[in-house]
Design brief:
12 helices; 14 strands; alpha/beta; about 400 residues; five-stranded antiparallel beta sheet
Length: about 400
């Protein structure tokens, strides 16, 4: 092995991995950090990577691409894993891995590496993408090779070699942040009975500390894609950033979940997804007046499978291509505006409107409908639907 491209975050694992790769494989290590909206976490990353032993580091701004080509498709699909998880970490991995492969080709690297553990989902997500885009690539997964057996042993190694890391034995949980969300897991969170510490959260106020007055926000969609907030057209990155600020201020988007990992175990994760929570609610509201009933039911029946494919790491797969094509077709009439009320952690729909609306007040009204609907027609409709039920009862008799 002569040259390896490492998916680098500057966190505990990848900080150790640079030195470990050089010691174990005697190879050159090129670090790659994708800017997906981590903010201050990227500060000093170049200096740290080079000081730790990397020969070069790529830090690339992928924020617009991330929201446009990965987050928004998930929003359009209505994808939620196991009822509550909005897939913030899951959907970031295929983009990171895709760009990592592109850099490996550019640098004529022999291999790629990542800091995912051998117990988690991320190893699968990274490596399925690597192999889907380059079947011949060599993958180095240190957590499946080295002798370290815990995060504490990594911290001890870091101290021994003077490697600065953002994790301590007092706060041993790990986090992963991007524009869509931030996740926390491990350490003190491994006991599902323990309530997360109030000072752990980053993107949102505690609901009890949020403003005592509700905030209203209007979001416009075109063919299922969010395009404006409160009447102002915004790029994908700026739109989601703004909604993160608004949602975070109002305590929106906190989730505490014990989920089923792909590898077979249950794990506890705590998530903050303020802007994403708002977008899911707003998108569903616009769909409710613009999407045909049977199209919606068919799409909804596939949501668990879509979410599972994202969670498991099959973004670059033929089945996901098929699913995304179906989602795009389902969204062709989903254009309109949703108005949401945000108050102390709650995100509720306050209104929705669309030029493509299938909602007809002259048909649904309890007042005089002026002949738009003949209520007598319901009698035959009911009798035909009751026929098989009547026959079944007659047979019993």
């Amino acid at each position: 092995m002569k040259k390896v491209v490492l998916a680098y975050s500057g966190g505990l694992d990848t900080s150790i991995i640079i030195k470990w790769l050089k010691e174990t494989y005697r190879c050159e290590v090129i670090a790659f950090a994708a800017d997906l909206g981590q903010g201050k976490e990227l500060t000093g990353l170049e200096e740290k990577a080079l000081k730790t032993g990397a020969s070069k580091i790529y830090i690339e701004d992928l924020r617009e691409e991330f929201v446009r080509d990965f987050v928004f498709p998930v929003i359009k699909a209505g994808a939620v894993y196991e009822g509550v998880y909005l897939l913030g970490t899951s959907i970031a991995r295929p983009l990171i891995a895709k760009r990592q492969i592109e850099i490996a080709h550019k640098e004529n690297a022999d291999a790629v590496s990542h800091g995912a553990t051998g117990k988690g989902n991320d190893q699968v997500r990274f490596e399925l993408t690597y192999y889907a885009l380059d079947p011949k690539i060599t993958v180095i997964a240190p957590w499946r090779e080295w002798d370290f057996d815990s995060r504490e042993s990594l911290i001890d190694y870091a101290k021994k070699h003077g490697i600065p890391v953002p994790v301590t034995k007092e706060k041993p949980y790990s986090s992963d942040r991007n524009l869509f969300h931030i996740s926390f897991e491990g350490g003190i969170l491994e006991d599902p009975w323990n309530e997360p510490a109030k000072d752990m959260f980053v993107l949102s106020k505690a609901p009890e500390d949020a403003p005592d007055k509700p905030t209203y926000v209007e979001i416009e969609f075109e063919r299922g894609t969010p395009v404006a907030v409160n009447g102002e057209k915004l790029t994908p990155f700026t739109l989601l950033s703004l909604l993160n600020e608004i949602g975070g201020e109002n305590g929106i988007g906190r989730v505490d979940l014990v989920e089923n990992r792909f590898v077979g175990m249950k794990s506890r994760g705590v998530y903050e997804t303020p802007g994403g929570t708002i977008l899911h609610a707003a998108h569903r509201a616009v769909e409710s007046i613009t999407m045909d009933r049977e199209v919606m039911r068919l799409r909804d029946s596939l949501i668990p499978k879509y979410a599972e494919l994202v969670y498991y790491g099959f973004w670059y797969s033929p089945e996901m291509e098929l699913m995304n094509a179906m989602v795009e077709e389902s969204q062709k009439n989903v254009s309109g505006v949703a108005r949401l009320k945000l108050y102390k952690g709650n995100c509720t729909v306050a209104g929705r409107k669309s030029d493509r609306s299938l909602y007809r007040a002259d048909i649904v009204t309890f007042e005089q409908d002026r002949g738009a609907y003949n209520q007598k027609d319901a009698e035959g409709f009911i009798k035909l639907n009751a026929l098989r039920l009547k026959i079944r009862k007659m047979l019993e008799a």
